[in-house]
Every structure is written in structure tokens, then in C-alpha cells.
Predict the 3D structure of the following.
Amino acid sequence: MPKDTSIKKVLVIGSGPIIIGQAAEFDYSGTQACRALKAEGIEVVLVNSNPATIMTDPNIADRVYVEPMTPEVIKRIIRKEKPDSILPNLGGQTGLNMAMTLAREGFLEAEGVRLLGCKPETIDRAEDRQLFKDTMEKLGEPCIPSKVVENLDDALAFAKEIDYPVIVRPAFTMGGTGGGICEDEAQLREIGTNGLRLSPIHQVLIEKCIAGWKEIEYEVMRDGKGNVITVCNMENFDPVGVHTGDSIVVAPSQTLSDKEYQMLRSSALRIITELGIEGGCNCQFALKPDSFEYAVIEVNPRVSRSSALASKATGYPIAKVATKIAIGYSLDEITNDITGQTCACFEPALDYCVVKFPKWPFDKFVYAKKDLGTQMMATGEVMAIGQSFEEALMKAVRSIELGLDTMDLPHLAECSDEEIRQKLHVCDSDRSFVVFEAIKRGFSFEEIYAATKIDYWFLSKLAKLADTEKRLAAGEMSMGLYKLAKRQGFTDKAIKRISGCTELPARLRAGFKMVDTCAAEFAARTPYFYSSFDEENEAAQFIADHPTDKKKVLVFGSGPIRIGQGIEFDYCSVHCVWTLKKFGYEAVIANNNPETVSTDFDTGDRLYFDPLDPESVENILETEKPWACVVQFGGQTAIKLTKHLTELGVKLLGTPADAIDEAEDRERFDELLERCGIPRPKGHTVFTTEQALAAGSELGYPVLLRPSYVLGGQNMIIAYGPEDVTEYMAIIAEHTDMENPVLVDKYLMGTECEVDAICDGEDYLIPGMMEHVERAGIHSGDSISVYPPRTLSARIKQMLVEYTGRLARELKVVGLVNIQYVVYNNQVYVIEVNPRSSRTVPYISKVTGVPMVELAVRCMLGEKLKDMGWGTGIRPDAPYVAVKVPVFSFEKLHGVDTQLGPEMKSTGEVLGIARNFSDALLKGLVGAGYKFQKPRSGSCCLITVKNADKLEILDTAWQLKDMGYKLYATSGTAKTLNSNMIACNTVRRISDEHPNILDLLESGLVDYVISTSDHGRDPDLDSVKMRRKAVELSVPCLTAIDTAKVLVETLRSGATLDDVELIDISTL
Amino acid sequence: MKTFLVLANGTVLEGQQFGATGTRVGEVVFNTGMVGYEETLTDPSYYGQIITQSYPLVGNYGINGEDAESGRIWAFGYIVRELCDAPSNFRCKKTLDQYLKEQNIIGLAGIDTRSLVRLLRESGVMNGALTTEYATAEEALADEALMKAIREYNVTEAVANVTRTETTVLNEGGKYHVALFDFGCKNNIQRSLVKRDCKVSVVPATTTASQLKEMGLDGIMLSNGPGDPAENVEIIENLKEIAKMGLPIFGICLGHQLMALAQGAKTEKLKYGHRGVNQPVTDLAHGRTYITSQNHGYAVVGDSLDKSLGEVSHVNANDGTVEGIRYNNMDCFTVQFHPEACGGPKDTDYLFDEFVDMMKGGC
């Protein structure tokens, strides 16, 4: 079946902001889809509220709408653009739900828009719990005993029938939001109620818990002719019970014989055939470890996180092939791009082992509950490829940036055997490390298996690593042992540390093998490599076979997605690569994140999928021998390599390495500012708690504490008194290397501004400045940020430009620099200078139309800004206002205080673009999920603020009251409001008797909560508990006075999106 | 113990020994399947060959005996990257190492199997020897007798070595009586027929038409098997007669090649064959492409078949080689791939239904 030529213009719906459970993988799949469509000459209209994505680039789609993703907005875009088709299954659950809503309403049919790749009936049969069960029953595919219920009573009755434990799975939520395992009736009451509320159709599945079975996934594809293939199967290290997104995953499966493998494969193919999916589909199975009994757990009728992983694990571009199928091609008509000579209708054969390791935010949220269950908590992941499981696992651990290079988690060494024994029973993010520790201590496999149900195969592999560590530690050092350790993924540094040997028997260097989809059966032409300790080096052969006159540049990516280092850095890395290619250089990428565009097989000229640690990077350098390297775009992950690269004598493009040190080293930074004549908040550098306390009292509280060398404000806090300093120094000491000092600064609560500039060493170009809605003290990543600034005077703006210029020149920045300022009492202070790409680069690039990364790379290659045609100095403001609004994933992270502060907490962002601030803000807020509605009868708002905020909240409170909201406040706040003639009811605190503030929240009448407090974080505090309750009940909770102010103003204005113009940013 | 793979081109790879010791010469081939090693080892089609597994972790689920495709290992040697010494699976009865020892087959582990596969891909299948009897690579290469044996090795009389001498009858009460030629038959062909209520008489490779005529058959099945199809002159002659019996015939792999030769077509040796479980085969009549299990080093030359006698019904979607023939002059269809799977996908197992349907029609 050839291409359907009636398809000429397609709407692609993206996945919106990055949240836990829906991350960069959909930028990767969406970008592949858009490119595949464009390659076929089809016009692409894209909608995605997330500006940090590659897919929203004007060169990826023809028309780009960075607009809130609501059904109304999408309808307007469809009416305006008149696409003939819509591609719904590449934008995650968000895109799919959106398309289904429009289809069910009959809107698509009425507008003559075809749904490509799937039918609403198909989606319902996969996602509606009851229909899914019926479909599986019809096919004879076993499911887990379960029942769909729509109220708690039915849930309780069914649970009694099938017996506890049971699992609650809400319908139509992604990443398992709102689900969980219930051991008894009390838990079911809590989790069940929550799940029913979070499900958009108020439906949950109550399911028999089969925790302990093996969890196996298959990625399958089907075309319109009915051809079916499996791309990959995967086995979870953790058995059923842990969300696959939170599980270590291995590809291909390891403990299945052909019988089991084929049994599940056939089942997956029967399912995709019965559902009639044309494209990709993910089938999850539970397999009983001691029989052939299995059950279908879940089917995702779209590309997913697992399909992104499968694509990178095999080399097979699932999203691209799914897109081609959607526009009419059959699998046998599509070429396998990796080999260039075989067809896409085949099943990849792997000749290596792949391990995926989740990246959790618990190093950041120290108070969060680390327990793993059916609800995903990882923000990102890394993938590693090895010739053995041991090697792949070790590479993965080296890549997750927890400061580990083995499976040894330092604090476990101090635990007693009894403590380890107890920890084995706790299924949390440390468990794989606990299992390793238990093995090292000689716990029997039987005991570990009984507690964890982790397959003996995995245990025996961990035992091999433990054995090597033991032999090394015993001082045995031979060529044989060294070789074995290298093949198992130990770095030289780890081998030296464990063995205590300063000299190694040799210096083995890795060679590289190719990922080619076919286990070397055919010669592949796509250079995608991973390291291994073998004699052969296919990368070196490839380079020798493809001689070129081009200069070669190695670009380091940004590793796993985490809070503070998100998809923006992948955007920057990809643009760097594209620019290098465009200007005649050979661009080589090294990265370890399977979810990204940068690790797509055709982004760079060559791809190295390996850890980004010094040794691994050295191996790549030795094979590639690049002319230069780039670290500026890969976030802290790449920046961290600077020192090592400089020592190796590698040429770094752009800003000299010393500038990074100058910006981070407190003393040198102070000297720099002195030379530039720029003030900064007073501060000190300390190493101990005592020094920190002394600094605090000298500067006067509040003060800002943070470790040096951080990104995303990791472990950064505002201390309001000495007790805070003591608490936080303890936490910092636990989580960071105390060789690096802690910075203590006077905290100035002024207006925060941010400037990104491109510099060529002499001139600079500022595409635009940003002003934050929230005052300093809230991390820039969590602030609502406005371009262009809306309150700054011309004089202040001029000072910002001048300071930026001075700093850039003095630091000899060549490339990008990001500077954060605070304006306090009409004085501009510098908070920090980051001589690298920043989180705001994609958004400013898109709004101003200035290709920032491209210009930065050209500067790095020696061009001058004045010759590039974009001018120098500050660019005139664009005719649009852009408001970036952060998006959080608090509902997924239990025990995390939602109060914003200097430590970043958001996982993603959306952008609102309009002709004026209020419209742009409205778009941003709606895009971020805020709902604007008039108060219903009985609606109320709950206000509880710290003393410093009490007078400031008056105006906002009055406005709410004026709109018709009933106000409730805790005693102190209520007293202030009432004494200022704003009538308000007092509500009892959590620790007081019922009915109290929790009962009020549970009444369902609270529309908004405004809550600020001096203290936070500790989950035992009343204020934190109250905010958590609000999150669990999905009540918007504003934790900054400034946010509350703009939100209430927007609410009161009564404006709706219907009145706001939709903007195609490709025309900006 | 030092163990070497000595190749005809003088390459020597050193690894760790497992299974048996000694020296064994064979044709070195590679298989890209990621599971199914027990099926592979016991597949008689591998007679005369030393198998290299491209997936690096082998032996993970041990050996269970139930998945064997015949009573013994037929391959001449086995090469893996990493041998699993602690297999895990509920059916596991022994380790791969134990099994090879029992069966007196030499195993070689710890070599860079990917580079070996690449070598075989570039130079084509190559003869070689697995040996534990030399102290150094040089010593092995200097042994002229060994090198000569390697150079001159040819898989000969393969079918004669793997077939049976007596007829075995399975499922006595089955509805359709099928004579299954054992050219090196995999067990799952029998199972697939029995499952469809056939009485299966597994007959020796050299069974003649006149012998078959006395059996009261409903159909004839030609099995897979090892070696160069063209060397089976006697069988090919027999098949010419058998083709005239008017019975439905279904052939797999070697059976497919032998019938083509009997009908005047030619076969050729492929550079490195198809051995794996991911080969796409397009059914030309229906336009569908299926993922198939394959194990063959020879193929029927497409245009060598007289069009009036039969037509190519299936082709390999990767390289266009002949994967199936439907005959015009008799009720016969044959395929190059393995619809009986084991190991591999069962996507084409409907072909057995078609065969049974043909027998139904004939009744």
C-alpha cells in the first residue's frame, strides 16, 4: 500500500509540559514524526504548549502553535488551519486524550478531519478498563481478576470478593497517577477515593495484586495490511508491582526461554491485530515465575516511553515508522534506515545487553517518600549498552549522576545486617543497591528472593560484580582480574579505589561496537556506537572508511532529565549539532539519555551512547580524536567534564574553561564583580556549620545557602534563623561532596530578572530580557517569567544591558551566558552568572526569532556577531509578550512540600504568547493547568500566610471576596483580614480538633488555597501537610504572594481564551 | 584449558572451553536468535556446522529437555560470548555446559562473537575447527593435518547421517495419515501435525513412492534437514515419482529445496545463509509479510524453475531470495522458512492448516 496522497496537511499534537510520566520521549517521537511527514511533502501543523522542545522549532513543522492544549484551543487551530488529518498517537497521553475528545464530540468528522493511525474505538478498547477486559476475554487472553467500579462501595465489595492486596488503577490517567496497592480496607478507602477523583471519567479498576510475577513488555507494530512485528521485548529487574518507569529494565528479556518468549510475543501480536492499531503499541505482561501462566497488564495504543527506549535499544525508529504507516505505507515498503538495504518489516536482533536505569528526584527532595509502586516517580532515565548485563548495569549506574561508579551506595555500608535485612523488604528507590549490599554480605539468594522476588538470574549477575569487588579489595591484582573488571564496567578510578592499588597492570582502552538492528547480519551505515572492551573498534574502522576534510567536533549531551536540567539542554545540544553540520563540520554526539532527540540515530554524524564520565569520555576522545569539544550546551553534566578535558589538553570551543571556575569560585567571582564595578548581595564561603552560623549572624537573616557548583538550585534554601542553617548544613553534607564549599549570601527580596546573551569575546547580543513575576527567593525555574520586562524602568534595563556586557567581556565569554539579577531598592545586583546555555534559551529563541544556539556556535567557531546580521547589544522588543509558567508534578511525589523556594521543584514549563501581558499570562496559566471559573455557590478560598505576607495579601483577599468567594483563614491571617475590613472565617489548624482545615479542603468547596510559611520541607509540619492535602485533592495551591496576585487579577478580569488570538510562531 | 577456533583463513580466536574437549572440524555459521538455543542445538539441520550465537548471553534459562527438537545435539560445535553458569527458569534441568558435556560437543566462550559474525558476513561461511588440543595458536596453525582437514571439510552425506532407519508412527488414530520424510526432521513438525489430528508416519529419507503407496496416505510432508540439497541424488529421483502420486505435499526447508530440484530447478549456496528468527518473508499472493524462523545455507534459484510447473509464492523481503514455491502440476507447496518455529515466531503456522485443508479437499 503506497502513501495515501489525499493526506496533504496534518495536525500533530504534542505532549505539553514535561511532567513525571511524560517527559522528553514525546519530543523525540514527535520530532521524528514531523520530520517523516515533511519528508513526504506533507504540511505539518504542530501544537504543543512546551517551548523547550525541538518539535516546536520552525524547521520541524510548517506551522507552530505554542498554545494551551485545551480542546477549545485545538478546535480553533483546526478551524484556522484546516488540516485534512490529525496524527494523535505520537504526543503521549495528552495528545491522544485531546484527539479522542475531539473525535468523540464529532468535531473531527464535522470538520472533515481524519484521525490517522487509530480509531476512537481502538483507543477505548485499550484504555477503557471494562472494554479492555472484554476485548481480552474475546481473544482468550488472560487478564488479572479485576472489576471496573465507579464508586467506593463497589470497590470495597469487589476487594472483599477477590481478597487483599488489590491494586487501584484509575482509568485514563498517565504514569499511573492516583493508583496504588492497598493491603487492607483502610488503604483502599484512601487510594480508591483519590483514584476515582483523578480519573477524568471517574472510573477505577480494582485488580487482584500479582506482585512478584515477572514483568515483561513487548513493543509491537502493525500496518494497514495487517503485517505485524515486535521491535523489542524487555524484562523488568523489579517484578510486577513497581511501575515500569521506576524499574530497572533490561532488553532483550533474559530469563525467558523461546517458549515463553514466543507465547507472549504471539499474545502481543494478537492484541495489536484485534485492536486494529496501525502504528506502534506497547503490551505489558505479568508472567508467573514458575509456570506458563501469564496475564496482560496493560496495552498502550501509542508510542510511549517504552517505545522510545526500544527505539534506542535496537536502533529501530518506531515513531518514524509509525508515522509512515499512518500515512499509508506498509512495513515492507519502508526501508530500515540503519542498514539502508533491508526493510522495516523485520524484528531487530540485538547482540548486546541494554539496561535502563531510572533517575529519581529524591536526591533533591530529601523529604519525599522514596517508595516505589504503581505510580511513576522518576523524572528521567539513562540507558546503557554492554556486552554483558554487568557492564550495562555498571555503565547505567555511572550515568545516573548520583556520584556512584559502582553498585555501592555509601550509606548502606554503615548499616547492620539486620538493617539491611529490613531494607530488603522495603521497595524503594534504593532497593537495587540494598540487594547488592546484601549479596556482598553473603545473604542467601533464597532470602533475597523471598523478600524481593527479583529473579535469581539478576541476583547471580550482581553476585559476579560483588565477587569482583571482593577480589579487588583483597588486593589481588592481575591482568586477568583487571580485564574482567573492565569488562564488567568498572572504571580505572573505581578499580584503584577498591583495590588500593595506585598502579594498574595495564591501561585498557575501550573499543566501540555498533548498534545496527541486525546483530551484524548486514552491513549498517548508521554510525551508532557503544563502548566495550574488545580488540575490535568498529568506530575507528568506520572513521577510517569515511575519510573527510571536515573538522570534527564532539558535543556532550546533558544526560538524564531531572528537575533543574531538563529537555532545554537537549534542545541546545541538538541545535549545536545542527549548526556545526550546517557550517561544514562533522558533529559527533555523546549522551546517555534514550528519551531525547540528541540520541536519535540521524541527529549527529556519529552517536556514542555511553556514560558521560571522565574515563568513558577519554575512550571516545581516543577513537574520535576530535578537533574540538563542546560542553556549553549539555547542562551541568557536560560542564562537569570541563576540568578533565582541559587536563587532557582537549580544545574546548567557546568560553575558556577558566571562566566557569571564575563564575563559580566565590573569591574569584567577587574579584570579577569588583573589576566590573557590579554589586552583589554580600556573602561568605563556608565549609562547616559553625562558619555558616557565623556568616548568618554577620549578614543578618534571612540568608541564602547553597553548595557551589549546582544547577537547578539543588539543596539551595533560604534560612530565616540559625536553626535552619543547622538543619540544612546537615542535609547538604549528606548529599554533596564537602570538598566544595557552601555559599552563604544575604537574601535580597527584590525583583528578579534574567538575561541570556550571545557573545563573541568582544561584542554581545541580548535577544531579550526576562522579568520574574515572583520576587527573588523563588528559583528562576519555578518563577513565572515574562518577556519583555513589564515593570523595569529604562534606567534599570540599561544597567542590565551594561552589566551583562561588562561581565561577558571580562569573562571572555564566547557563546552563551546567562545572568540572573535582582533589582532591590532601585539598585541592580548580580545573583549568579552561568557562562553556558540556560533553561530559557529555547523560549527566548522562539519568541524573539533569534537563533541563539546557532549564533553562539558560530561565535565559538570564530565568527563575529557584527558580521552575522542580527546586530549587537540589545534587540528591540518583539511585538509579543511571552509568559513562561512552570509546571509541577507534585501529585506524583509524596511528602514533598509544594511551597516554592530557592530550590527548583518544577518539572516542566509552558509558554503563553500574546500581544499583551494579561492575555499571555492567561494562556500560560491555562496551559499550565489552572482552571478559571466563576465562583459556584458556596465556593471559598483558603488563605494562610506568614507574618511578612499578611499585609500584602489584603488586596488579593479583597479581590477574591469581591468576586463572591467566601474566605477562610487560619487564626493569625484571619485576624489581619478581619481587622482590615475583609470579612473572613477562621478555620482550625490541622493539629486542632475537627472540623479543621483538612475537613474544609475535603468538603470540595475550596477553589484556591494561598499558603506561605517561613518553614517548610519537613512533612510533619502542619503547613506542609495542608499543602500536600491540597495537591492530593487537586486544589490549586499558590505559595507565593506574587503568583497569587497575578492569578487573582486574571481570574477577576473574567477574560477567557476565546477572546485571545492564536499565534503561529513560525511567522514571528 | 586453552580453546581455539581455527578458521580456514588462518584466523585463530582463543576463548574459554566448555562442554567437551578435543578437536572438531565443521562449517562455521552464525545464528542471530536471542532465545531458543536448546532448539538450535538439537535442530538436525545444523549437522556439520559449528554455530556462533550472535546474542552474547547464552544459557540464561538452562536446558530443560522439553524444548529439544530432536533427541540429541547435531551441531558440531558451539560458540558463545558469555556462557551463563547460573541459569534461572522454572523448567531448567541442567546448565548448557553440562548438556554439551553429556553430548560430547565442544563449546567455546569468551570470544568477541560480533567480530566473528562480521568476519563470516564479509567472507561468507567458512570452515573451521574447535580445538582444546593445542597450547598456542601458532601450534594449531602449524599442524598441517588440522589445517588440511579444515580446508577440505565439506558437509557430506548429511541427510544420511541424521535420518532414521525405521518408520515411527505417531497418533495412530489421527484423521489424516501423513508420511513425514525425515531428512533431519524437527520435532515440532510432528507436533504441529499431530495437533491437527494427523496420524504421522515418520519415514526414512530414502523411502520410495512404491513404499508410500502401500501406506494409505492422505498427504506427504517433506522435512527440513542439513547439507547441500543437490548431493541427495537418490532422494531427488524418488521425489520425482512421489510427485506423481497425486497426494497433497508440503515441504519445509531442505524438503522445499529437494522438491524444487526434483522438478528441474537449481539450488545455490548463499554467502552466509539465513539463520535466525527475524527473517521477513512476503507471501506474494496475499501481499502480506511474515516474520519467520530460518536456518538454511542454500536457496532455490528463482528463475531456474519452469514457470509451467510452479511459481515462486514467497520471497525474502530483505534480499529477494526464494522462500516458497506453489506447484501447478500437483497439490504441492513448499517453503524455505520454518513455519513450525521452535525457536522463533509462530506467525506462519497457519500453513499447516492449509496443508490439512488440502488433505480434506482430497478426501
Summary: The domain at 2-155 of chain B is CATH 3.50.30.20 (Glucose Oxidase; domain 1). Chain B is about 25% helix and 35% strand. Chain B touches chain A through 53 residues (CB under 8 Å).
